[in-house]
């Protein structure tokens, strides 16, 4: 696949400790994240390889970070009588899944996975800071209107194509990819560099087909690294 890197961006979604199983890196052990996605840390190696390529060829690299206040409305802990996995109405278009406390601002769980190389990153976008509103997409919060500024950044550099990887396939990657399409970016997802929550069961399969139907390209990192 031939890429015009000058007009392309790599968006690395939420590769943070709370979304990853326990691991050891640099002689330090990191505990299982509170919302660990199976094999979440495995996305680091392919994303590092692609990010290096983007940096060397003058593409933009953006990393996003889920960044919640400790009383965030998506946490089951703040809703008496509700448990993780229950659904509530937060007044946005979609009903809200209640999650374990995760990615609390400044916590170890909110830090990027230690094996993710951020040296190539041009921009880090933090999202989910409004205690009353969740933000899956890197472009808009879940009210579908409040911008994160990412679209403006990409437009300022005349970016027309985005490539996505990270966590989780069925939440933040999915919503980011769908918004990218809606905003008319050519959009590709690296299937070897995403991992999903798969809650409710089957949601990973469901979003993969929804993304294909929407015209999002499903490729692997080797498709761009081989030439
Ligand atoms: C995410 C659930 C809650 C994600 C973030 O990064 O996909 N999922 N917050
Ligand atoms: Zn979150």
What does this structure look like?
By secondary structure, the chain is of the alpha/beta class. The protein has one domain: Isochorismatase-like (Rossmann fold). 22% of the residues lie in helices and 21% in strands. It contains five helices and ten strands. The strands form three sheets. A six-stranded parallel sheet has the order 7-4-1-8-9-10, with helices on both faces. The protein has a two-stranded antiparallel sheet with strand order 2-3. Strand 2 (23-25) and strand 3 form a beta hairpin. Bound molecules: pyrazine-2-carboxylic acid and zinc ion (ZN). Pyrazine-2-carboxylic acid is lined by residues 14, 19, 66, 99, 167-168, 171-172.
Features:
21% strand, binds zinc ion, binds pyrazine-2-carboxylic acid, 227 residues, alpha/beta, 10 strands, 22% helix, Rossmann fold, 5 helices, six-stranded parallel sheet, single chain
User: Which structural class best describes the helix and strand composition?
Assistant: alpha/beta
Q: Main beta sheet, described?
A: 6 strands, parallel
Cross-sheet strand order for the largest sheet: 7-4-1-8-9-10
H-E order = EEEHEEEEHEHEHEH
Q: Please report the first level of CATH classification, the CATH class.
A: Alpha Beta
- The rounded Rg comes to 17 Å
How many structural units, i.e. domains? 1
Uncertain stretches of 5 or more adjacent residues: none
Average pLDDT: 96
* Gap from first CA to last CA: 7 Å
Number of helices: 5
| DSSP strand count | 10
Report the sheet-strand fraction.
15-25%
């Amino acid at each position: 696949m031939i890429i015009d890197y000058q007009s392309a961006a790599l968006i690395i979604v939420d590769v943070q400790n709370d979304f990853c199983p326990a691991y050891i890196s640099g002689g330090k052990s990191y505990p299982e994240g509170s919302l660990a996605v199976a094999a979440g840390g495995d996305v680091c190696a392919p994303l590092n390889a692609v990010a290096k390529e983007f940096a060397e060829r003058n593409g933009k690299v953006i990393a996003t970070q889920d960044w919640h206040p400790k009383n965030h409305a998506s946490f089951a802990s703040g809703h008496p009588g509700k448990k993780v996995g229950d659904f509530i109405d937060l007044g946005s278009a979609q009903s809200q899944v209640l999650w374990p406390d995760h990615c609390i601002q400044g916590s170890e769980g909110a830090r990027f996975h230690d094996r993710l190389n951020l040296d190539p990153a041009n921009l880090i976008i933090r999202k989910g800071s409004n205690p009353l509103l969740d933000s899956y997409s890197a472009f808009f919060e879940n009210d579908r209107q409040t911008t994160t500024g990412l679209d403006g950044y990409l437009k300022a550099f005349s970016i027309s194509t985005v490539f996505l990887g990270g966590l989780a396939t069925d939440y933040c990657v999915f919503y980011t990819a769908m918004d990218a399409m809606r905003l008319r970016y050519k959009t590709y997802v690296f299937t070897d560099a995403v991992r999903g929550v798969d809650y409710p069961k089957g949601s990973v399969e469901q979003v993969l087909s929804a993304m294909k139907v929407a015209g999002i390209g499903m490729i692997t990192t080797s498709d761009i690294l081989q030439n």
